[in-house]
Specification:
- The structure is a homodimer of 223-residue chains.
- The longest helix of chain A is centred in the first third of the chain and has 18 residues.
- Chain A has 8 helices and 7 strands; from the N terminus they run H-E-H-E-H-E-H-E-E-H-H-E-H-E-H.
- The first copy, chain A, has 223 residues and is an alpha/beta fold.
- In chain A, 36% of the residues lie in helices and 18% in strands.
Chain lengths: 223, 223
């Protein structure tokens, strides 16, 4: 009797991610997977973006958390298409969870789908969800050493957003050190500096998103 | 032929943790395991504490990171007894890693041993290291919703330290909501509010540490 062995859980995740990606591409839905440490401002960035773009695009959000519907409730005040994934302790989203959320959201009808991953700079990095683009969100209040200390998160991203620039006057954050560290790890990654509170840099972020939307939604993916 | 099965990796971790705890207790070494999200200020808290206590106690530090010796180098400017554990991608420290670090540090000669865990509010929670006390460090700039969103981290701790209180004037942090959320999850956990930058609350933290040191170093452990 043959014993079947799942050699690589990640290989299965990749298959599921490719399936998600194919479905979204077929329906011209752009999916943005946002990774960050806890409290960097993923929800705030999504809320500001929805306010800017909901007149032009049909937007949905998948909220990933180990527990609670705290963030999903905030988003639900703005748009209808929100699904909460509670992982029940698991430290990252995977492509199978996304497949179910995409189904529940009827995501093929959306122009733009944000995924707020579980707040964690380590475990979500290895899990392709089938996203069109991946964003690494860092924040001034976390300090300028995050690229040095969590290098894979900054390597495996299409772009870096640095939030909470309004905190710069009250911190010892060294922008040169941060930018140089990111460039060493990921020379192609653009860095957008913004503050969801003051609105600084939001227009640059919206411009970047618009470019992704316009680019035929068929980017060169890293996965 | 019998096939041996490791039924529970966590059971092995518990054995190793108990061994670490027994060794430390035998040598009257108090070990404090500090958990937090990336950038909450674990290193800053350890540095401030060393400055306050190094005249009275022999202090050592075990630095846990997925990569780099960034934090260990800062500590090494203050004290000799520092060991860096680079997990190489693993999202938490475990008791076996600690056993090796304790050996390398000759930790039985220390009065006080700080463990700076990998910056992560999820995965380190389940891993007993053999610590005398566990601290959950949160920070004002991460927002007041961390207990709601990462409940296990706040349940499985002996005490909560809220850092960066100097940021309160520049944030919408609701102290009542934060404190109530912590109390619901962990009614016995003291909350110490402090700022490593201004020094506010540091004396209360030192007082707490002194009590742990004086209490015969045989606390009622939760593990």
């Amino acid at each position: 009797m043959e014993i079947k062995v799942i050699e690589n859980v990640m290989a299965y995740n990749k298959l599921e991610a490719d399936s998600n990606r194919e479905f979204l591409k077929h329906n011209n839905t752009v999916m943005i997977n946002i990774l960050s440490a806890p409290g960097a401002g993923k929800t705030s960035l999504i809320i500001e973006t929805i306010k800017q773009l909901r007149g032009n695009f049909k937007i949905g959000v998948i909220e990933g958390d180990i527990a609670s519907t705290h963030d999903a409730e905030k988003i639900k005040n703005l748009i209808e298409d929100v699904v909460q994934i509670n992982t029940g302790g698991t430290c990252h989203l995977n492509a199978s969870m996304l497949a179910e959320a995409i189904r529940q959201l009827n995501a093929g009808s959306l122009d733009l789908l944000f995924v707020e991953n579980v707040g964690n700079l380590i475990c979500p990095v290895g899990f392709d969800l089938g996203e069109t683009r991946r964003i690494l969100l860092s924040s001034v209040s976390e300090g300028d050493d995050k690229p040095v200390k969590y290098p894979k998160a900054f390597i495996k991203t299409d772009m870096v957003v640095l939030n909470k620039t309004d905190m710069l006057p009250y911190s010892e954050f060294d922008m040169g050190f941060f930018s140089d560290s990111v460039k060493k790890l990921n020379p192609d990654a653009q860095i957008i500096k913004l503050s969801c509170r003051t609105g600084e840099g939001i227009s640059e972020w919206i411009h970047w998103l618009n470019d992704v939307m316009k680019s035929g939604k068929k980017p060169d993916l890293k996965f």
